[in-house]
Amino acid sequence: MKNVVMGTAGHVDHGKTSLIKAMTGIDCDRLAEEKKREITIDIGFANIDLSEDNVIGIVDVPGHERFIKNMLAGVSGIDFVLMVIAADDGVMPQTLEHLDICQLLGIKRGIIAITKKDLVDEEWIELLCGEIKQSVKDTFLESAPICPVSVNDGISVRNLKEEIIKLANETEARNEWGGLRFPVDRVFTMKGAGTVVTGTLVSGTFHLNQELVILPDNREVRVRQLQIHGRSTERAGAGRRIAVNLTGVDVDEVKRGNVVAETGTLTVANLLDVKLKVLKRIRRPVKNRSRIRFYIGTQEIIGRISILDKVIIEPGDEAYARIRLESEVVCNFRDNFIFRDFPGKITLGGGIVLETEPSLKGKKSDICGSLKMKEKGTPEEIVLQCIEDSGYKLSSEDGILSKTNLESEKGSVIIKRLIQDGLAVKFESDGSYISRRYFEKLKSDSIQMMKKYFEENKRKTWVSIPEIRSKYFKSIDKKLFNYVMEDLINESSVARSLSGSGYRHSEGSEGVFAEEERIRDKIQAIYLEKEFNGPDEDGLMDYVDSKLVEAKEILQVLVDAGVILKLGAHAFAHSDIVEAAKLKIIALLKEKGEINIADVRSELNTSRKFAVPLMEYFDSKNITMRKGDVRVIYKAG
Q1: What are the residue ranges in the chain where pLDDT is below 70?
Q2: E strands within 3-108?
Q3: For 535-551, b where at least 16 C-beta lie within 10 A, e where not — what string?
Q4: Alpha-carbon torsion 350, 355, 358, 362, what sign?
Q5: How many Cβ atoms are within 10 Å of 261's Cβ, its own excluded?
Q6: How far apart are CA 72 and CA 85, in angstroms?
């Protein structure tokens, strides 16, 4: 037996609460006003105990149209419904509205109870069964058992109870191993305990001392005590009605509509892309920019609809839309929701969440294409679409799983398959992802922009990543652009300078590369030949000239690569010459103990212009140490 939750539904005064009391002995009307008016106002709770560990939780909802928002909070977490229809009244407006709501919320199973059967004869019951079957045709209750019952007839109550137990046994168990999700439908305080919240655990498992958050405020709390139908427990899994005693939050800091969850497992948003379905029963179409009341889980939020693929949505029709909410909602991909008119008098329809906090850019046709894939695609297609929707922004595996509401293991397998099929790219350094289509497009654009850059800067040999990115790709993440350059280099589409800081496209640059190599070799030869009497940047032009490349830029490339050392503002020397000089200076110091600049000039046959910056360079490298006007061998400390 699995732990499941059944919810009631039906028109006001059709005997839902009385029927639950007859089956369980529990009066779900807990409020004084409910007892005074003999009408259910808010949701109530009961249970059918099958054994100590096997319980059918029951949520009793109000039937009056004025309390539909309370009804919505109650049915949001149920596994199947008990649709109650009074024999003396038949199918009524809230019967149909509750049926529509359950259908829109994706409830798959249910039982129909015809109450007050003792007030009519058998012939009337048969006629009513025909009317009911016609009313539930093409809905999830089309094949549901119909059970005539009277609270004054114990046999009929037991028969109904047996049908409920049978359906509970056939109901699929909730996911106890997924992320914990607990929409709060009631909050109160108990003396000596503090804040208590109740609700139906949709997924995951509670345990004592568990650290959680209350969304959307992200308030940190800890589980102090757990109760299932009045019995204390150390653990409580999905599919149960649970009372949770929390520490870290006052009773006035949590309310119906909040969600208790594990950190990072649910999305908080106020902008949603959705698929809407408008009910056939409403009389007028839903117009663009309509203000609505939006219900998801136990939350009620005011919002506004922007229709994406139609001008209006006719009764019975569907459309993709964007809903902007006035406060944050807690939801996940493919969550069901209900929406009603702004005054809260008419249920207009429902839908599913397809995207949270969508990009504000893009054509409506592209947005709708993406939403269609997320609505109807395979898990692989949905994951790929999620990565594609990120465009040039890198995606993390956690982000993808959150966007698609997939279990970690299944999601990881799908992502690996997309990479193997060449549809997505993974960067091993940080485990981020991008779609192959966007990655190849960025590579292609990078080559084209490089060609444009060098066409506009004909004597430039190389361009740095920061320069080309700031000039043409400001919106692209620095890390992603580096990945693109590395990939282009690996496939020889882009060459990197000797220093590693400059880049150039390969195609059409063969002449430039050959000329650069010639000038580079010539510059090195000059500084090897001149030793410590080589030219500065301006003087280099007397030795080197080129129509294709800039000698100063190539000199800088050699400096960046450490081949040529810049000893001072106007002093350059080849690294091999400096290394040979180091050995001579060390030998001289060992011989004399200390040396001055004149000694350096004499030993290296150079000028003061080179001797001073050379010794300052050796000082900076901890080879020598200055003491007044002389140098000695460096000694630490």
Answers
A1: 1-2, 29-42, 51-53, 63-67, 175-177, 498-499, 546-549, 636-637
A2: 4-10, 44-49, 55-60, 80-86
A3: beeeebeebbebeebbb
A4: negative
A5: 23
A6: 18
Residue 477, classed as helix, strand or coil, is coil
Cis, peptide link before residue 216, omega less than 30° from 0: yes
Helix (H) or strand (E) holding 170: helix 154-170
Beta strands in 151-210 (DSSP E): 181-190, 194-200, 205-207
With beta carbons less than 8 A apart as the criterion, state whether 254 and 195 touch: yes
Token pair recorded at residue 626: 């200055």
Give the separation between CA 147 and CA 307, rounded to whole angstroms: 42
pLDDT in tens, 489-517: 999 999 887 667 788 898 877 877 787 78
Q: Is 491 exposed, middle or buried (0-12, 13-18, 19+ CB in 10 A)?
A: exposed
Q: Supply angle C-alpha 12, 84, 20, rounded to 5.
A: 90
In angstroms, rounded to a whole number, what is the distance separating the alpha carbons of residues 133 and 31?
Answer: 35
Task: Decide if 276 contacts 313 (C-beta within 8 A).
Answer: yes
Give CA separation, 393 vs 82, 166, 355, in Å: 47, 50, 16
Tell me the pTM: 0.79
Spatial CB neighbours of 386, under 8 Å, sequence gap ≥ 6: 374, 395, 400, 403, 404
The CA distance from 104 to 81, in Å, is: 13
The tokens for 6 are 């059944």
